[in-house]
């Protein structure tokens, strides 16, 4: 039996692990490459896992550790907090292991053709859109990281286009206010996308009111969506309304829900959890509910829009992207899908 001893350094704050060896390597490579995407690729991590690590650290510290790199090229860089955290880890590593902290950095191959990166919310139509763009000769890479992280990704210059469906609870408007809130007013443009029906997915027919009651009395187990996703934002909006109605705090409402922290990255994962009995309810799109022969309780029609870099809107790829979205084939395909529809201004480019 080949048993080996393994020691790992961790930085801990109030019982929470802030930094371990893998997350330290991630920060090290972000600092080296100036890119979260490149750092995750070098470590063999999914882009969504890298974002989750960064979000977890920022939530524990209550401070940003990554920010947009100022300049024409954009990209990501560590904040002063992020740099201090990495330096603290490197210093402690040398102290306890008597050697320098290092990360094996693979050589980045020169790409013979540009890779266009989609990073954003999960949607069936995005997969279809990506296939049409590939048919036109583009190499398209898709990462399901959620609406908010997708917005952050394109602001950082890490991705080429993103999909989002973020509801502003104050105005009832989708997406636009979030672009303004996160500083994308001058750098981003919004391409009007499609409409999709979103709601609660269950194994049996049940009313909206009964679902809320069963969630709050603990008889239903939830499969939630990942932090930063539009579906999770919608659930939070519903829970806030419920907290107001019951004259209580949102955190108390959350604490009553079984498996509130059990999360999925895609609508397929939500349907799979409900279908197999691992969860009783989750928020997802009608199309997936029907595909899994599950019951669907409609909440609202939402705008699923595409965000692009404003300065690149005249590039051939973006012209082809918009042309594809406005094409008769694309629109008819969307209209044929249960739980989907198109607005009259699909493909319209909006500036802020």
Automatic annotation (TrEMBL):
* PANTHER family, sorted: BLL2305 PROTEIN
Q: Name one GO molecular function term.
A: DNA-binding transcription factor activity
- Xref: InterPro entries: LysR_HTH_N, PBP_domain, WH-like_DNA-bd_sf, WH_DNA-bd_sf
Q: Which Gene3D superfamilies match?
A: Winged helix-like DNA-binding domain superfamily/Winged helix DNA-binding domain (1.10.10.10)
Q: Which residues form the PBP domain?
A: 135-326
Q: What protein is this chain from?
A: Transcriptional regulator of molybdate metabolism, LysR family
Q: Where is the HTH lysR-type domain?
A: 30-82
């Amino acid at each position: 039996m080949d048993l080996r001893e393994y020691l790992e350094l961790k930085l801990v704050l109030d019982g929470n692990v802030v930094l371990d060896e893998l997350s330290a390597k991630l920060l090290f490579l972000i600092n080296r490459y100036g890119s979260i995407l490149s750092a995750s690729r070098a470590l063999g991590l999914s882009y969504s896992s890298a974002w989750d690590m960064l979000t977890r650290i920022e939530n524990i510290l209550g401070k940003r550790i990554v920010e947009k790199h100022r300049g024409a090229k954009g990209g990501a860089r560590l904040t002063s907090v992020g740099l201090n955290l990495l330096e603290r880890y490197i210093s402690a590593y040398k102290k306890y292991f008597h050697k320098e902290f290092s990360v094996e950095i693979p050589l980045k191959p020169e790409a013979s053709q540009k890779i266009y990166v989609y990073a954003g919310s999960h949607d069936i139509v995005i997969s279809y859109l990506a296939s049409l763009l590939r048919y036109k000769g583009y190499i398209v890479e898709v990462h399901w990281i959620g609406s908010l992280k997708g917005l952050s990704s394109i602001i950082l210059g890490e991705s080429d286009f993103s999909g989002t469906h973020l509801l502003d609870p104050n105005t009832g408007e989708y997406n636009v206010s979030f672009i303004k809130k996160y500083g994308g007013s001058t750098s981003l443009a919004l391409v009007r996308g499609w409409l999709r029906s979103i709601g609660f997915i269950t194994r049996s027919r049940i009313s909206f009111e009964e679902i809320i009651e069963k969630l709050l009395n603990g008889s239903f187990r939830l499969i939630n969506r990942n932090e930063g996703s539009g579906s999770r934002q919608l659930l939070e909006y519903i829970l806030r309304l419920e907290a107001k109605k019951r004259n209580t705090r949102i955190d108390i409402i959350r604490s009553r829900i079984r498996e509130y922290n059990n999360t999925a990255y895609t609508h397929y994962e939500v349907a799979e959890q409900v279908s197999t009995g691992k969860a009783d309810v989750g928020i997802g799109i009608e199309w997936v509910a029907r595909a899994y022969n599950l019951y669907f309780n409609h909440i609202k029609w939402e705008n699923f829009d595409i965000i692009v870099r404003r300065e690149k809107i005249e590039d051939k790829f973006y012209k082809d992207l918009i042309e594809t979205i406005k094409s008769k084939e694309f629109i008819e395909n969307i209209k044929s899908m249960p739980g989907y529809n198109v607005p009259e201004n699909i493909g319209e480019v909006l500036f802020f």
